[in-house]
Amino acid sequence: MPEGYATGRATKQSIVESAAAAFAQKGFYGASLRSIAREAGVDHSTLLHHFGNKTALLLAVIEWHDAQAMPADLPETISAEFIADGFAATAARNAETPGLVQLLSVLTAEAGAENHPARETLQRRHELVTTVIAWTISSQRAEHEDHGDPLSPEERAAVLIASWEGLQVYDALHPGKLDVPALVRAMLREAFLLD
Amino acid sequence: MPEGYATGRATKQSIVESAAAAFAQKGFYGASLRSIAREAGVDHSTLLHHFGNKTALLLAVIEWHDAQAMPADLPETISAEFIADGFAATAARNAETPGLVQLLSVLTAEAGAENHPARETLQRRHELVTTVIAWTISSQRAEHEDHGDPLSPEERAAVLIASWEGLQVYDALHPGKLDVPALVRAMLREAFLLD
DNA sequence: AACAATTTCCACCGCTTGGTGGAAATCGAC
DNA sequence: GTCGATTTCCACCAAGCGGTGGAAATTGTT
To answer: How far apart are CA A146 and CA A152, in angstroms?
Structure first.
Protein backbone atom coordinates (compact mmCIF):
# COMPACT_ATOMS: atom_id res chain seq x y z
CA MET A 1 0.00 0.00 0.00
CA PRO A 2 2.68 2.51 0.83
CA GLU A 3 4.83 4.01 -1.89
CA GLY A 4 7.77 2.12 -3.37
CA TYR A 5 9.31 -1.15 -2.30
CA ALA A 6 10.01 -2.33 1.22
CA THR A 7 13.78 -2.06 0.81
CA GLY A 8 13.47 1.52 -0.34
CA ARG A 9 11.35 2.50 2.62
CA ALA A 10 13.82 0.91 5.00
CA THR A 11 16.71 2.77 3.40
CA LYS A 12 14.85 6.07 3.58
CA GLN A 13 14.22 5.43 7.25
CA SER A 14 17.85 4.70 8.02
CA ILE A 15 18.92 7.81 6.10
CA VAL A 16 16.52 9.99 8.05
CA GLU A 17 17.90 8.73 11.34
CA SER A 18 21.50 9.31 10.30
CA ALA A 19 20.55 12.76 9.06
CA ALA A 20 18.90 13.62 12.37
CA ALA A 21 22.11 12.82 14.23
CA ALA A 22 24.24 14.74 11.76
CA PHE A 23 22.04 17.86 11.74
CA ALA A 24 21.97 17.79 15.53
CA GLN A 25 25.76 17.67 15.72
CA LYS A 26 26.75 20.06 12.95
CA GLY A 27 23.64 21.97 12.05
CA PHE A 28 21.99 22.07 8.64
CA TYR A 29 24.86 23.78 6.83
CA GLY A 30 27.65 21.93 8.59
CA ALA A 31 26.35 18.41 8.01
CA SER A 32 27.14 16.88 4.63
CA LEU A 33 25.00 14.56 2.54
CA ARG A 34 27.98 12.30 1.99
CA SER A 35 28.68 11.79 5.68
CA ILE A 36 25.00 11.16 6.32
CA ALA A 37 24.84 8.63 3.52
CA ARG A 38 28.06 6.98 4.68
CA GLU A 39 26.62 6.60 8.18
CA ALA A 40 23.52 5.02 6.70
CA GLY A 41 25.67 2.62 4.67
CA VAL A 42 24.60 4.01 1.33
CA ASP A 43 26.00 6.03 -1.54
CA HIS A 44 25.23 9.72 -1.38
CA SER A 45 23.50 9.64 -4.73
CA THR A 46 21.10 7.08 -3.28
CA LEU A 47 20.25 9.62 -0.63
CA LEU A 48 19.57 12.22 -3.30
CA HIS A 49 17.47 9.76 -5.27
CA HIS A 50 15.16 9.42 -2.27
CA PHE A 51 15.00 13.01 -1.09
CA GLY A 52 15.89 15.13 -4.11
CA ASN A 53 17.96 17.73 -2.28
CA LYS A 54 19.35 18.70 1.10
CA THR A 55 16.45 20.92 2.13
CA ALA A 56 13.89 18.23 1.43
CA LEU A 57 15.91 15.86 3.61
CA LEU A 58 15.88 18.40 6.44
CA LEU A 59 12.12 18.76 6.26
CA ALA A 60 11.72 14.99 6.24
CA VAL A 61 13.87 14.80 9.35
CA ILE A 62 11.74 17.35 11.19
CA GLU A 63 8.59 15.52 10.19
CA TRP A 64 10.05 12.26 11.48
CA HIS A 65 11.13 13.95 14.72
CA ASP A 66 7.61 15.19 15.36
CA ALA A 67 6.15 11.78 14.67
CA GLN A 68 8.53 10.44 17.33
CA ALA A 69 7.85 13.17 19.87
CA MET A 70 4.11 13.67 19.57
CA PRO A 71 1.70 11.13 20.99
CA ALA A 72 -0.10 9.31 18.26
CA ASP A 73 -3.58 9.69 19.72
CA LEU A 74 -4.66 13.25 20.44
CA PRO A 75 -7.64 13.33 22.82
CA GLU A 76 -10.79 15.15 21.79
CA THR A 77 -10.48 17.89 24.38
CA ILE A 78 -7.05 18.88 25.55
CA SER A 79 -6.79 19.13 29.30
CA ALA A 80 -4.18 20.80 31.45
CA GLU A 81 -3.18 17.43 32.80
CA PHE A 82 -2.71 16.11 29.29
CA ILE A 83 -0.29 18.91 28.45
CA ALA A 84 1.53 18.63 31.74
CA ASP A 85 1.86 14.90 31.24
CA GLY A 86 3.08 15.51 27.71
CA PHE A 87 5.81 17.84 28.92
CA ALA A 88 6.81 15.44 31.65
CA ALA A 89 6.91 12.46 29.33
CA THR A 90 8.91 14.38 26.78
CA ALA A 91 11.35 15.58 29.41
CA ALA A 92 11.82 12.02 30.62
CA ARG A 93 12.37 10.61 27.14
CA ASN A 94 14.67 13.48 26.23
CA ALA A 95 16.95 12.53 29.08
CA GLU A 96 17.55 9.22 27.32
CA THR A 97 17.85 10.46 23.75
CA PRO A 98 19.79 13.72 23.89
CA GLY A 99 20.29 13.61 20.14
CA LEU A 100 16.67 14.38 19.44
CA VAL A 101 16.79 17.41 21.71
CA GLN A 102 20.02 18.67 20.24
CA LEU A 103 18.46 18.38 16.78
CA LEU A 104 15.68 20.84 17.33
CA SER A 105 17.70 23.12 19.57
CA VAL A 106 20.27 23.65 16.84
CA LEU A 107 17.72 23.91 14.06
CA THR A 108 15.54 26.36 15.97
CA ALA A 109 18.53 28.57 16.73
CA GLU A 110 19.69 28.42 13.12
CA ALA A 111 16.17 29.19 11.95
CA GLY A 112 16.43 32.59 13.62
CA ALA A 113 18.14 33.58 10.36
CA GLU A 114 15.56 34.74 7.88
CA ASN A 115 16.69 32.57 5.01
CA HIS A 116 16.93 29.25 6.83
CA PRO A 117 15.21 26.51 4.85
CA ALA A 118 13.29 25.23 7.88
CA ARG A 119 12.28 28.63 9.21
CA GLU A 120 8.67 28.55 8.06
CA THR A 121 8.16 24.97 9.17
CA LEU A 122 9.52 25.63 12.64
CA GLN A 123 7.50 28.83 12.92
CA ARG A 124 4.29 26.96 12.20
CA ARG A 125 5.23 24.23 14.67
CA HIS A 126 5.80 26.83 17.36
CA GLU A 127 2.59 28.67 16.63
CA LEU A 128 0.55 25.50 16.83
CA VAL A 129 1.93 24.50 20.20
CA THR A 130 1.67 28.05 21.55
CA THR A 131 -1.97 28.25 20.57
CA VAL A 132 -2.89 24.96 22.18
CA ILE A 133 -1.13 25.76 25.43
CA ALA A 134 -2.47 29.30 25.57
CA TRP A 135 -5.98 28.02 25.11
CA THR A 136 -5.48 25.49 27.88
CA ILE A 137 -4.09 28.08 30.26
CA SER A 138 -6.98 30.34 29.44
CA SER A 139 -9.61 27.72 30.24
CA GLN A 140 -7.69 26.71 33.33
CA ARG A 141 -7.84 30.30 34.54
CA ALA A 142 -11.57 30.36 34.02
CA GLU A 143 -11.90 27.71 36.75
CA HIS A 144 -9.62 29.39 39.27
CA GLU A 145 -10.61 33.01 38.92
CA ASP A 146 -8.02 34.23 41.42
CA HIS A 147 -4.99 33.75 39.21
CA GLY A 148 -3.85 37.39 39.12
CA ASP A 149 -1.21 36.72 36.50
CA PRO A 150 -0.06 39.94 34.80
CA LEU A 151 0.84 37.92 31.69
CA SER A 152 -1.73 36.99 29.07
CA PRO A 153 -2.26 33.31 28.28
CA GLU A 154 -0.38 33.73 24.99
CA GLU A 155 2.53 35.36 26.76
CA ARG A 156 2.54 32.67 29.42
CA ALA A 157 2.51 29.99 26.76
CA ALA A 158 5.35 31.61 24.83
CA VAL A 159 7.44 32.06 27.96
CA LEU A 160 6.75 28.48 28.89
CA ILE A 161 7.92 27.15 25.54
CA ALA A 162 10.92 29.48 25.37
CA SER A 163 12.00 28.52 28.88
CA TRP A 164 11.47 24.88 28.13
CA GLU A 165 13.70 25.06 25.08
CA GLY A 166 16.23 27.20 26.90
CA LEU A 167 16.45 24.58 29.64
CA GLN A 168 17.14 21.87 27.07
CA VAL A 169 20.06 23.85 25.70
CA TYR A 170 21.34 24.63 29.17
CA ASP A 171 21.18 20.97 30.09
CA ALA A 172 23.02 19.92 26.94
CA LEU A 173 25.81 22.34 27.79
CA HIS A 174 25.94 21.33 31.47
CA PRO A 175 24.84 17.69 31.53
CA GLY A 176 23.38 16.55 34.81
CA LYS A 177 23.73 19.86 36.57
CA LEU A 178 20.01 20.53 36.53
CA ASP A 179 17.01 18.37 37.31
CA VAL A 180 15.21 19.47 34.20
CA PRO A 181 11.97 17.51 34.72
CA ALA A 182 11.65 18.98 38.22
CA LEU A 183 12.24 22.52 36.99
CA VAL A 184 9.72 22.04 34.21
CA ARG A 185 7.22 20.85 36.78
CA ALA A 186 7.88 24.02 38.78
CA MET A 187 7.36 26.14 35.69
CA LEU A 188 4.10 24.40 34.92
CA ARG A 189 2.93 25.05 38.44
CA GLU A 190 3.59 28.73 37.93
CA ALA A 191 1.68 28.64 34.69
CA PHE A 192 -1.32 27.26 36.64
CA LEU A 193 -1.36 23.96 34.89
CA LEU A 194 -0.42 21.84 37.87
CA ASP A 195 -1.46 21.45 41.53
CA MET B 1 51.60 50.07 22.57
CA PRO B 2 49.30 47.40 21.17
CA GLU B 3 50.62 44.58 19.05
CA GLY B 4 51.31 45.02 15.36
CA TYR B 5 50.54 47.95 13.09
CA ALA B 6 47.37 50.00 13.00
CA THR B 7 46.27 48.62 9.62
CA GLY B 8 46.61 45.08 10.89
CA ARG B 9 44.50 45.75 13.94
CA ALA B 10 41.82 47.37 11.83
CA THR B 11 41.76 44.39 9.48
CA LYS B 12 41.53 41.96 12.37
CA GLN B 13 38.60 43.94 13.71
CA SER B 14 36.75 43.93 10.42
CA ILE B 15 37.36 40.19 10.06
CA VAL B 16 35.97 39.51 13.54
CA GLU B 17 32.80 41.42 12.74
CA SER B 18 32.28 39.62 9.46
CA ALA B 19 32.92 36.33 11.21
CA ALA B 20 30.37 37.12 13.89
CA ALA B 21 27.71 37.68 11.24
CA ALA B 22 28.67 34.54 9.36
CA PHE B 23 28.75 32.28 12.44
CA ALA B 24 25.40 33.71 13.50
CA GLN B 25 23.85 32.92 10.12
CA LYS B 26 25.38 29.55 9.32
CA GLY B 27 26.91 28.29 12.55
CA PHE B 28 30.53 27.42 13.13
CA TYR B 29 30.65 24.51 10.71
CA GLY B 30 28.50 26.08 8.02
CA ALA B 31 30.37 29.37 7.75
CA SER B 32 33.48 29.37 5.58
CA LEU B 33 36.71 31.29 6.08
CA ARG B 34 36.64 32.35 2.46
CA SER B 35 33.18 33.91 2.65
CA ILE B 36 34.11 35.66 5.89
CA ALA B 37 37.30 37.03 4.35
CA ARG B 38 35.45 38.07 1.21
CA GLU B 39 32.91 39.99 3.30
CA ALA B 40 35.77 41.72 5.10
CA GLY B 41 37.34 42.64 1.76
CA VAL B 42 40.40 40.51 2.30
CA ASP B 43 42.01 37.33 1.00
CA HIS B 44 41.27 34.26 3.07
CA SER B 45 44.95 33.63 3.67
CA THR B 46 45.16 37.07 5.28
CA LEU B 47 42.49 35.90 7.69
CA LEU B 48 44.53 32.83 8.50
CA HIS B 49 47.64 34.92 8.95
CA HIS B 50 45.86 36.85 11.69
CA PHE B 51 44.03 34.05 13.45
CA GLY B 52 45.91 30.86 12.63
CA ASN B 53 42.88 28.61 12.20
CA LYS B 54 39.11 28.51 12.21
CA THR B 55 38.70 27.60 15.88
CA ALA B 56 40.93 30.46 17.02
CA LEU B 57 38.80 32.82 14.97
CA LEU B 58 35.67 31.53 16.67
CA LEU B 59 37.13 32.09 20.12
CA ALA B 60 38.21 35.59 19.10
CA VAL B 61 34.66 36.30 17.97
CA ILE B 62 33.21 35.17 21.30
CA GLU B 63 35.72 37.27 23.19
CA TRP B 64 34.80 40.29 21.09
CA HIS B 65 31.09 39.63 21.62
CA ASP B 66 31.54 39.61 25.36
CA ALA B 67 33.53 42.82 25.26
CA GLN B 68 30.57 44.34 23.41
CA ALA B 69 27.91 42.94 25.69
CA MET B 70 29.46 43.32 29.13
CA PRO B 71 29.74 46.71 30.80
CA ALA B 72 33.35 47.83 31.00
CA ASP B 73 33.25 48.82 34.64
CA LEU B 74 32.13 46.16 37.06
CA PRO B 75 31.13 47.69 40.41
CA GLU B 76 32.80 46.46 43.58
CA THR B 77 29.68 44.86 45.01
CA ILE B 78 27.11 43.53 42.60
CA SER B 79 23.61 44.56 43.52
CA ALA B 80 20.30 43.16 42.38
CA GLU B 81 19.56 46.45 40.66
CA PHE B 82 22.84 46.26 38.79
CA ILE B 83 22.00 42.84 37.39
CA ALA B 84 18.45 43.81 36.57
CA ASP B 85 19.70 46.90 34.79
CA GLY B 86 22.24 44.79 32.95
CA PHE B 87 19.55 42.45 31.68
CA ALA B 88 17.35 45.36 30.68
CA ALA B 89 20.15 47.17 28.89
CA THR B 90 21.17 44.02 27.07
CA ALA B 91 17.59 43.29 26.07
CA ALA B 92 17.23 46.81 24.72
CA ARG B 93 20.45 46.70 22.73
CA ASN B 94 19.68 43.23 21.45
CA ALA B 95 16.51 44.56 19.90
CA GLU B 96 18.68 46.76 17.67
CA THR B 97 21.43 44.27 16.84
CA PRO B 98 19.76 40.91 16.35
CA GLY B 99 22.94 39.55 14.81
CA LEU B 100 24.74 39.49 18.14
CA VAL B 101 21.93 37.53 19.73
CA GLN B 102 21.72 35.09 16.88
CA LEU B 103 25.46 34.51 17.20
CA LEU B 104 25.40 33.18 20.72
CA SER B 105 22.09 31.42 20.33
CA VAL B 106 23.44 29.32 17.49
CA LEU B 107 26.82 28.73 19.09
CA THR B 108 25.31 27.75 22.43
CA ALA B 109 22.97 25.29 20.75
CA GLU B 110 25.80 23.84 18.66
CA ALA B 111 27.98 23.61 21.77
CA GLY B 112 25.54 21.09 23.19
CA ALA B 113 27.57 18.60 21.13
CA GLU B 114 30.46 17.34 23.17
CA ASN B 115 33.14 17.99 20.58
CA HIS B 116 32.26 21.56 19.69
CA PRO B 117 35.37 23.79 19.72
CA ALA B 118 33.68 26.49 21.79
CA ARG B 119 32.02 24.14 24.28
CA GLU B 120 34.43 24.72 27.16
CA THR B 121 34.50 28.46 26.65
CA LEU B 122 30.73 28.74 26.62
CA GLN B 123 30.46 26.46 29.65
CA ARG B 124 32.76 28.69 31.65
CA ARG B 125 30.87 31.78 30.53
CA HIS B 126 27.61 30.23 31.68
CA GLU B 127 29.02 29.13 35.00
CA LEU B 128 30.39 32.57 35.76
CA VAL B 129 27.10 34.30 35.09
CA THR B 130 25.13 31.65 36.95
CA THR B 131 27.32 32.02 40.02
CA VAL B 132 27.04 35.79 40.11
CA ILE B 133 23.28 35.78 39.72
CA ALA B 134 22.78 32.96 42.21
CA TRP B 135 24.84 34.82 44.78
CA THR B 136 22.80 37.96 44.21
CA ILE B 137 19.51 36.12 44.55
CA SER B 138 20.77 34.51 47.71
CA SER B 139 21.71 37.80 49.36
CA GLN B 140 18.48 39.34 48.14
CA ARG B 141 16.55 36.57 49.87
CA ALA B 142 18.40 37.25 53.09
CA GLU B 143 16.75 40.66 53.20
CA HIS B 144 13.23 39.47 52.47
CA GLU B 145 13.00 36.33 54.53
CA ASP B 146 9.50 35.47 53.37
CA HIS B 147 10.43 34.39 49.87
CA GLY B 148 9.19 30.80 50.08
CA ASP B 149 10.70 29.82 46.77
CA PRO B 150 10.99 26.03 46.41
CA LEU B 151 13.92 26.54 44.02
CA SER B 152 17.47 27.08 45.25
CA PRO B 153 19.28 30.27 44.21
CA GLU B 154 21.42 28.26 41.77
CA GLU B 155 18.35 26.69 40.23
CA ARG B 156 16.63 30.05 40.00
CA ALA B 157 19.68 31.54 38.34
CA ALA B 158 19.94 28.69 35.86
CA VAL B 159 16.26 28.87 35.00
CA LEU B 160 16.56 32.61 34.60
CA ILE B 161 19.45 32.32 32.16
CA ALA B 162 17.90 29.42 30.28
CA SER B 163 14.59 31.26 29.94
CA TRP B 164 16.36 34.43 28.90
CA GLU B 165 18.20 32.62 26.12
CA GLY B 166 15.10 30.71 25.12
CA LEU B 167 13.22 33.97 24.76
CA GLN B 168 15.93 35.34 22.48
CA VAL B 169 15.57 32.34 20.19
CA TYR B 170 11.79 32.55 20.29
CA ASP B 171 11.94 36.23 19.39
CA ALA B 172 14.33 35.59 16.49
CA LEU B 173 11.93 33.02 15.11
CA HIS B 174 8.84 35.20 15.64
CA PRO B 175 10.11 38.77 15.35
CA GLY B 176 8.00 41.36 17.15
CA LYS B 177 5.49 38.88 18.50
CA LEU B 178 6.74 39.18 22.05
CA ASP B 179 7.69 42.15 24.20
CA VAL B 180 10.87 40.50 25.33
CA PRO B 181 12.10 43.26 27.67
CA ALA B 182 8.75 43.27 29.46
CA LEU B 183 8.75 39.52 29.84
CA VAL B 184 12.29 39.58 31.15
CA ARG B 185 11.24 42.18 33.67
CA ALA B 186 8.43 39.86 34.78
CA MET B 187 10.86 36.99 35.13
CA LEU B 188 13.21 39.09 37.21
CA ARG B 189 10.33 40.04 39.46
CA GLU B 190 9.61 36.38 40.04
CA ALA B 191 13.28 35.79 40.82
CA PHE B 192 13.01 38.45 43.52
CA LEU B 193 15.41 40.82 41.90
CA LEU B 194 12.92 43.56 41.16
CA ASP B 195 10.16 45.46 42.99
C1' DA C 1 66.25 57.35 3.24
C1' DA C 2 67.05 53.07 5.11
C1' DC C 3 65.47 49.06 7.39
C1' DA C 4 63.20 45.20 9.76
C1' DA C 5 58.73 43.92 11.12
C1' DT C 6 54.32 43.40 9.66
C1' DT C 7 50.72 42.86 6.47
C1' DT C 8 48.74 41.30 2.19
C1' DC C 9 47.92 38.65 -1.77
C1' DC C 10 48.74 34.92 -5.13
C1' DA C 11 49.33 30.14 -6.25
C1' DC C 12 48.83 25.87 -4.84
C1' DC C 13 47.67 21.39 -2.06
C1' DG C 14 44.54 17.40 -1.25
C1' DC C 15 40.05 16.86 -0.10
C1' DT C 16 35.06 17.58 0.26
C1' DT C 17 30.83 19.78 -1.28
C1' DG C 18 25.79 19.37 -3.49
C1' DG C 19 24.08 17.71 -7.54
C1' DT C 20 23.59 15.00 -12.37
C1' DG C 21 23.27 11.03 -15.68
C1' DG C 22 23.20 6.55 -16.73
C1' DA C 23 23.88 1.72 -16.34
C1' DA C 24 23.27 -2.35 -13.45
C1' DA C 25 20.98 -4.79 -9.80
C1' DT C 26 16.84 -5.73 -7.20
C1' DC C 27 12.03 -6.01 -6.15
C1' DG C 28 7.26 -7.45 -6.40
C1' DA C 29 3.01 -8.28 -8.85
C1' DC C 30 1.21 -11.24 -12.50
C1' DG D 1 9.42 -16.77 -15.05
C1' DT D 2 8.52 -12.38 -17.11
C1' DC D 3 8.68 -7.62 -17.05
C1' DG D 4 8.15 -2.98 -15.67
C1' DA D 5 8.98 -0.12 -11.66
C1' DT D 6 12.14 0.83 -8.23
C1' DT D 7 16.45 1.00 -6.06
C1' DT D 8 21.39 1.28 -5.91
C1' DC D 9 25.94 2.40 -7.17
C1' DC D 10 29.67 4.33 -10.07
C1' DA D 11 31.70 8.14 -12.59
C1' DC D 12 31.75 12.68 -13.06
C1' DC D 13 31.11 17.83 -12.59
C1' DA D 14 32.23 22.61 -11.16
C1' DA D 15 32.79 24.68 -7.01
C1' DG D 16 34.26 25.31 -2.47
C1' DC D 17 36.80 23.77 1.69
C1' DG D 18 40.83 24.66 5.45
C1' DG D 19 45.48 25.26 5.36
C1' DT D 20 50.61 26.17 3.56
C1' DG D 21 54.62 28.70 1.50
C1' DG D 22 56.58 32.40 -0.36
C1' DA D 23 57.10 36.68 -2.64
C1' DA D 24 55.60 41.53 -2.84
C1' DA D 25 53.79 45.55 -0.68
C1' DT D 26 53.08 48.40 3.34
C1' DT D 27 54.04 50.23 7.95
C1' DG D 28 56.44 52.43 11.74
C1' DT D 29 60.90 53.72 13.57
C1' DT D 30 65.40 55.51 13.47
So the answer is: 14
